[in-house]
């Protein structure tokens, strides 16, 4: 009960002293927070950011850096790819559901080109270079690649394929340490600072302050001392997901129990709980993205089978979709079946994730022998490979629709990589917000003075995912939050 009561809102009438004050107070200095800060400052507001850690960046600065943009961005056009807001919407509605927010996705697609230009105008660099190989991200400094399975089944039959993974140009990237996300955040932070945005670090937000029904501030702890922060026109919550809140994972997304969070430990869901204490509505709290620890350059050259020896996903699709199919619908059971020639070819290819290239656990001269060694039911893997090879001899995959260029019969010797339990995830659900980033009460009305963006909200993803949608809608709706909060 002590923890529950500490999250409940506090009346401003009980505040004896405001330790900090600004027009707009932003909780979190990741991609949503910095975008909100820039737009609020440009709208004439005095802006103060409260950041839990000792520096800016959040999960965004450690990310690969994809920003999901399309509809005909200058980078798409320069590289010869045609796209439109309607085409982009068709893909996103199919890939990010079920239950995707059509109003929000329509809004996002229609504003995508302008958002790309906003990023460029604020110093984010994009190289006019396309990376067309399978991968989690480009190992080089290319600016554009497919990042959501747009060019693979079933989505390539629903919308015209167009690459929308826009990556800030950066050399010397280190995945998970200093990726393209750093080169996204750095110029935006510099822009915010040039506009006079102030930041207070080591600030752990605790609860919201209200005057009647209106949010007018935040209670936080700085170096163990409780401080009150007044927001004259609005509060923006931008503190990330709940991937590292064990109790919330158990309640809302239990399939991630025991899976390492593909996020940062500061993603503890506190903003969600603080707003819930005011009656905020939630959406898609069970939705999760699932990272799969397999190298796409290997997976695409073999076939993935489950614990019954059956294929369950086209191997040339977005790796995050493979992860979701593996964990959520196949009990986290996955094996990669690949012959020696294809394995060696995949290991020789450029990759951003060479550390996902594992040694085979089983090797055999025949599929029958491999099946026995793996302990699979007799005949299951043999029939799977026989059907695959029969169609692959004609360059076809009528079962799951893998593209012709990657369809090749599995030869001998043949191996199996044990990829069971090789998944991690992060949450996609959160506060329900309007297209103006207002936090919505369960009544359907906005909560006055409270705005939110980023992974603490239910953004454009309702279940499915594409790399870049977190940084994309975090920055897009972060901007909206800043404008709305400045207006009050």
Query: How many strand elements?
Result: 20
Mean pLDDT: 96
| Low-pLDDT segments, ≥5 res | none
Strand content: 15-25%
Radius of gyration: 23 Å
Query: How helical, in percent, are the residues?
Result: 25-40%
Q: Could you say which structural class the secondary elements and strand pairing correspond to?
A: alpha/beta
Biggest pleated sheet? 9 strands, mixed
End-to-end Cα distance, whole Å, is 33 Å
Total number of helical segments?
Answer: 15
Shape: elongated
Structural overview:
Helices cover 30% and strands 19% of the residues. The longest helix is centred in the last third of the chain and has 19 residues, at 469-487. Strands 1, 2, 3, 7, 8, 9, 10, 19 and 20 form a nine-stranded mixed beta sheet that branches. A four-stranded antiparallel beta sheet has the order 13-14-16-15. The chain is built from 15 helices and 20 strands. It is elongated. Helix 2 runs parallel beside helix 7, helix 2 runs parallel beside helix 15 and helix 4 runs antiparallel to helix 5 (102-110). The mean pLDDT is 96. A hairpin with a 5-residue loop joins strand 19 (438-440) and strand 20 (446-452). The chain has 488 residues and is α/β, with parallel strands linked by helices. The chain has helices at 2-7, 31-42, 74-78, 85-95, 102-110, 112-121, 180-194, 246-252, 270-276, 296-299, 319-329, 340-348, 367-374, 380-392, 469-487, and strands at residues 10-11, 20-27, 47-50, 67-68, 144-145, 165-166, 198-200, 203-211, 214-222, 225-237, 282-283, 288-292, 303-305, 335-339, 362-364, 414-418, 423-427, 430-431, 438-440, 446-452.
């Amino acid at each position: 009960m002590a923890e529950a009561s500490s999250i409940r809102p506090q009346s401003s009438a009980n505040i004896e002293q405001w330790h900090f004050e600004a027009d707009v107070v932003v909780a979190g200095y990741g991609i949503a927070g910095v975008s909100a800060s820039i737009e609020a400052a440009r709208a004439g507001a005095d802006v103060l950011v409260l950041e839990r850690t000792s520096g800016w960046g959040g999960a965004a600065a450690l990310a690969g850096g994809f920003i999901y943009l399309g509809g005909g961005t200058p980078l798409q056009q320069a590289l010869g790819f045609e796209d439109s807001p309607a085409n982009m919407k068709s893909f996103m509605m199919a890939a990010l559901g079920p239950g995707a927010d059509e109003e929000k996705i329509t809004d996002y697609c229609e504003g995508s080109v302008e958002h790309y230009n906003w990023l460029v105008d604020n110093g984010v660099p994009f190289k006019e270079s396309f990376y067309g190989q399978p991968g989690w991200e480009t190992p080089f400094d290319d600016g554009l690649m497919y990042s959501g399975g747009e060019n693979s089944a079933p989505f390539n039959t629903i919308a015209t394929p167009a690459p929308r993974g826009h990556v800030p140009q950066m050399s010397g990237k280190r995945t998970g340490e200093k990726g393209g996300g750093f080169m996204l955040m750095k110029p935006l932070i510099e822009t915010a600072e040039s506009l006079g945005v102030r930041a207070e670090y080591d600030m752990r937000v605790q609860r919201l302050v209200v005057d009647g029904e209106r949010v007018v501030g935040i209670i936080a702890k700085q170096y163990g001392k409780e401080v009150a922060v007044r927001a004259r026109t609005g509060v923006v919550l931008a503190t990330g997901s709940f991937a590292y809140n064990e109790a919330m994972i158990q309640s809302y997304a239990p399939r991630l129990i025991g899976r390492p969070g593909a996020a940062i430990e500061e993603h503890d869901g506190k903003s969600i709980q603080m707003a819930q204490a005011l009656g905020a509505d939630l959406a898609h709290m069970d939705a999760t993205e699932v990272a799969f620890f397999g190298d796409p350059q290997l997976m695409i050259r073999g076939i993935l089978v489950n614990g019954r020896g059956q294929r369950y996903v086209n191997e040339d699709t977005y790796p995050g979709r493979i992860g979701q199919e593996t964990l959520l619908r196949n009990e986290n059971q996955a094996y990669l079946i690949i012959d020696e020639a294809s394995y060696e070819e995949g290991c020789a290819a450029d990759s951003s994730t060479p550390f996902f290239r594992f040694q085979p656990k089983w090797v055999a001269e025949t599929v029958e022998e491999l099946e026995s060694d793996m302990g699979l039911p007799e005949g299951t893997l043999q029939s799977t490979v026989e059907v695959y090879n029969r169609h692959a001899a004609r360059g076809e995959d009528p079962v799951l629709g893998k593209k012709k260029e990657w369809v090749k019969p599995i030869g001998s010797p043949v191996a199996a990589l044990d990829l069971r339990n090789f998944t991690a995830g992060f949450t996609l659900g959160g506060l329900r917000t309007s297209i103006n980033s207002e936090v919505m009460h369960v009544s359907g009305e906005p909560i006055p003075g409270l705005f939110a963006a980023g992974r603490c909200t239910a953004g454009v993803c309702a279940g499915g995912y594409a790399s870049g949608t977190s940084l994309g809608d975090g920055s897009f709706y972060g901007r909206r939050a800043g404008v709305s909060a400045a207006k009050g």
